[in-house]
Each structure stands twice: as C-alpha cells, then as structure tokens.
Amino acid sequence: MTGASSWSFREEDATRIGALLNSLLREANARTALLVDRTGQMLATVGEEPRFDPVAFASLTAADFSANDQLARMLGENEFGALFHQGEKDSLYLADVARRVILVVLFDNRTTLGLVKLRVRGVVEALSALFTDMFARESAGERRLETGFVGEAEDEIDKLFGS
Amino acid sequence: MSLINYASREINCKLVYYGPGLGGKTTNLEYIYEKVAPASKGKMISLATETERTLFFDFLPVDLGTIRGFKTRFHLYTVPGQVYYNASRKLILKGVDGVVFVGDSQLDRMEANIESMQNLYDNMAQHGLDLTRIPFVVQYNKRDLPNAAPLGQLQDALNPGWPVEDPARQRPLADPNRAGEMLVQELDGGWIERVPYFEAVALRGDGVFDTLRAISKLVLKTIG
C-alpha cells in the first residue's frame, strides 16, 4: 500500500486533448465536451462555455459515475462503460476513459444520441491511449513544483484559515 | 490524488472529513463555508436526506489563491457517517490526499468512533492506501458537552500511535500544535507515531480552522 500520489497534466497534453475534443464536437454536433478525473476534478472543457459551476459539476460527475459503477457490479458487470442522462432540452452522455477519467458530452436536440455515441466511441480510444501514456509517465517519476511553493502556500493557509 | 494541471495552471487537493454519524463532519464544512471570504469559496453541495442527514457527501471547494503561478484549491468532502452507507463512503475516499477524522467526544459514542476508525482504515486499504502514510489528523468534537470523555481516553482509543519501522524516522518529534506533547516518541523500547489532534466545538467554530489549517499544510508538503 502507498500514501497519496499525484499526477500532472501538461500544456502539450491539453493541446492534444483539445484537438481531439474539438473534432468530436464538430462531428457529433454537440455543444460542450468536458473531461473530469475520477476523483472529481475538472481536467478540460472544450466548446461552448458551460453556464454551470464547473467545479461542482466535476465533483457530481465523478460521484455519479462511481455510484453507477457499484450498481454495475451488483448486476455482475465490471462497469457501465457509458451513461446517458436525458433532459428536455439538454442531455449528457458520459463515457469512461482508461478507468481514470470521464468524458462528458453535453448536447441538445440539434443532434441525436446515436450520433454522439458513435463519435464518442472513436475519441475514447484515442483518449485512452493518451491517458495511459500520461499515467505511465507519472509512475516513472518526474516534475515538480518550483521550490518555495510550500512556504508560500503555508502563508496563504495562515491568512485564509487564521493563524 | 492531487492533480497538478500545468495547462490550466491549477493544483487541486482532496480532503475528506470522516467519522461516525452525527459527529459534526457537515457542521465543520458549514462553519468553514460561513466564515471563508466569498471570493475564496465555491458552491457548497450537500447530497442529503430529507432529514438533512448526509446521504452521499457534502462538497465545498476552497481557493487558496494563486501561488507561484498555480491556482491552488482544496476540495473538502464529508462522508455519510451511518454504518449502512459504507458503499458511498468508500467512493468518496477515491483519490483522497488528506483525511480528518471527526470523533464524537461523548462517552456513549466511543464504540461508534472506534468502529468508524476501523472502517476508515479498511476502506483506505481497499483503495490501496495506507492511512499511516497519508496526511491525517484527528478532531475530537463536542468538547463542550458534559458527557465528553477525557482527552486521554479518546487518544488511547482512537490515536494510540502506530509503530515506526523506518529507522530514519525513529527520532523524537514534538507536536507543533500542543506544547510538551510528542508526535513521534520512544515508548516501552519501541518507536510510535501519533497524528496531530485537535479539540473542537464545531457548532460554534472552535477548533474548526485549526484542524483545516493542519491538514492543508500536511497535504501541501506532500506535493511541494
């Protein structure tokens, strides 16, 4: 067993992911694509700027996916690879990426669920390969933050949370 | 698991408040939400039952501001305390960076405290995480109640110390929060380590920010 670990997301990762998601949005005629990590943190947003609070959205998406994972196991399934939430105007399609990340596509009645599903399938494969590389890079050990970060962060904690 | 996003220049860390039902986990978050400056906090989300018991989790993002070019944010979560919500509890621990155990000081809640602590250890282990190796602090809440157990009794039951095997860490370490007390010490021929602990009355905010400050600093040390 280990202690808590961390991973990083680089500028070039964001560029590659942005290109993949932009082409997904074009081909599926969807509004916004978001990538959320399974612990509830927003990684990327592409397309129309969402009107909701992205931090809260990411946390709820991860919880939603995790809860459904457990339901899948109760049925004897390994997982539900994708989820669909249908609204009157806006709908969400969520798909697993490499067991660590969730792709969320927000779309409306200008497109169809079938088309979104079809286009997501293709992009999930490409994203999975990309994230698998990123996680391998982390376990190989690299990075880190500028020296002085911790000291400065501690000062901010004292200011914000009272010393 | 803290995430350092070099593209959006953000660092996010996940803190989880754990403990027995009705121990004050949600109260801690509500007090923090009430007191932190509006610019530093996000929306607080509570997935609760009609009787306001936590069903899945409470969530509160707190921004520390931009540090060395990185927007640094803590995601505070509580878990549902009731025993039968274990599936939800386990999910919330996924990717945790630091844990606060909120114990209920009342004598008649001692057993519930111990059961919850064991459950925390087990659920962490199922995520492949070792509770003794991640940032962890204990808060003894409800210190104002007449039936509150003495601190020593709570410490013996919930924070008795685990053996320190690593020779490099076998050296006395004072508790920076409590004069004259030790976090790492030699006892009966062996070395043990306890985690920092705090007394609290979360309803009126006593000890709430001391606890949050301690766990936040421990977490930042692990990523810095």
Low-confidence stretches of chain B: none
**Largest β-sheet summary of chain B:** 8 strands, mixed
| Unreliable stretches of chain A | none
At the fold tier of CATH, the topology name of the largest domain in chain B is Rossmann fold
> Could you state the order of secondary-structure elements of chain B as H and E?
EEHEEEHEHEHEEEEEH
The number of distinct helices of chain B, counting runs of at least 4 residues, comes to 5
Overall residue-averaged pLDDT value of chain B: 93
- Count structural domains of chain A: 1
Question: How large is the radius of gyration of chain A?
Answer: 18 Å
SS-based class of chain A = alpha+beta
Query: Could you say what the CATH topology of chain A is called?
Result: Beta-Lactamase
Instruction: Give the strand tally of chain A.
Output: 6
Query: What's the number of structural domains of chain B?
Result: 2
Topology:
The complex is a heterodimer of chains A (163) and B (224).
Chain A: E1 6-9, H1 11-28, E2 32-37, E3 42-47, H2 54-74, E4 82-85, E5 91-97, E6 101-107, H3 113-139, H4 149-161
Antiparallel strand pairs in A: 2-3, 2-6, 4-5, 5-6
Helix pairs in contact in A: 1-3
Chain B: E1 2-5, E2 10-18, H1 25-35, E3 45-48, E4 54-67, E5 70-78, H2 86-92, E6 98-104, H3 110-126, E7 136-141, H4 151-158, E8 162-163, E9 173-174, E10 182-187, E11 190-193, E12 197-199, H5 208-223
Parallel strand pairs in B: 2-5, 2-6, 6-7, 7-12
Antiparallel strand pairs in B: 1-2, 3-4, 4-5, 8-11, 9-10, 10-11
